[in-house]
Amino acid sequence: MHFYRDKTVAKGGPDGGDGGRGGDVILRGNKQLWTLIHLKYRKHIICTAGENGSYQNMHGADGVDQILEVPIGTIVRDEITGEQEHEITQDGQEIIIVKGGRGGLGNSNFKSPTNQSPRHAQPGEPGKEEWKILELKILADVGLVGFPNAGKSTLLSVVSAANPEIANYPFTTLVPNLGIVRYRGAQSFVMADIPGIIEGASEGKGLGLRFLRHIERNSVLLFIVPADAKDITDEYLILLSELEKYNPTLLDKARILAVSKCDLADEELMAGFKKELKAKAKKLKKVPVVFFSSATQKGVPELLDTLWKAING
């Protein structure tokens, strides 16, 4: 609240300026970032408050915004309810996750013919304090789905420059890995190796529940079942069932069944596999089936052709 005064004006009108707004916490999508590691040790994001208005209708300075650069695929959840509030889907996209308080109004806003000397001003809104959870869902063209030790990481290491840990025991992969796959020279697509799923993953068993969400952000799902599995079709259907229990919309994505480790089987056994899968075509619902070996790279070009067709289909 302020009234104009100078050496020639003893009693001027109201000239109190408005206060500045508080700073906003803003997320900005950045396609150059792949993880949220840069925010791991930055628990508190504090914006400055807006400054007071002043005489001669001077507006107070706004608070400084805090802009957090995050990878595309980042979602924001409320810490208390767990509900998803926002999602970053594009490079350069900006979303305000905590809005600063509005600045108050000076007494010059309240003057009227019946109240020419208002002796009150509107106070500004108090700042907010909220907890948010930032969660990254990996964005890829192809997501590898399979049981532990099915050969997913080996395939990724063969078709891309990614270097995931590979060993002959279950749950070698503990974190998702991304690889850029070159396709016939100039083209490329992104493949994600997701830690192995076990039966009951949708109920929290194994590591699956932590990583099933990453499958939601893939255009095509590549189911990997090894040739030495007891029943290739049954393993595929178990994997499909776990995805359906977790999120039924995952079944709307394009799916391909790839039988890995085919170097372990001779021609007679391979013929038996193909005959068996053909007989169970109804169960598979016409899902394309590709046989390959990462060790000998036999069938890998055909697999990439099938993936490229599915991605662009």
Q: How would you characterize the overall build of this protein?
A:
With about 325 residues, this protein is of the alpha/beta class. The protein has helices at about 150-160, 210-215, 230-245, 265-280, 280-285, 300-310; strands at about 25-30, 65-70, 75-80, 85, 95-100, 130-135, 140-145, 175-185, 185-195, 220-225, 255-260, 290. The strands form three sheets. The protein has a six-stranded mixed β-sheet with strand order 8-9-7-10-11-12, sandwiched between helices. A three-stranded mixed β-sheet has the order 2-1-5, with no helix packed on it. Helix 3 (about 230-245) links the parallel strand 10 and strand 11. It is rod-shaped, with a radius of gyration of 29 Å. The termini are far apart. Residues about 170-175 have low confidence and may be disordered.
Q: Topology, pairings included?
A:
Elements: E1 25-29, E2 66-70, E3 74-78, E4 84-87, E5 94-98, E6 132-136, E7 140-146, H1 152-159, E8 177-183, E9 187-193, H2 208-215, E10 218-226, H3 232-246, E11 254-260, H4 267-279, H5 281-284, E12 289-291, H6 300-311
Parallel strand pairs: 1-2, 7-9, 7-10, 10-11, 11-12
Antiparallel strand pairs: 1-5, 3-4, 3-6, 8-9
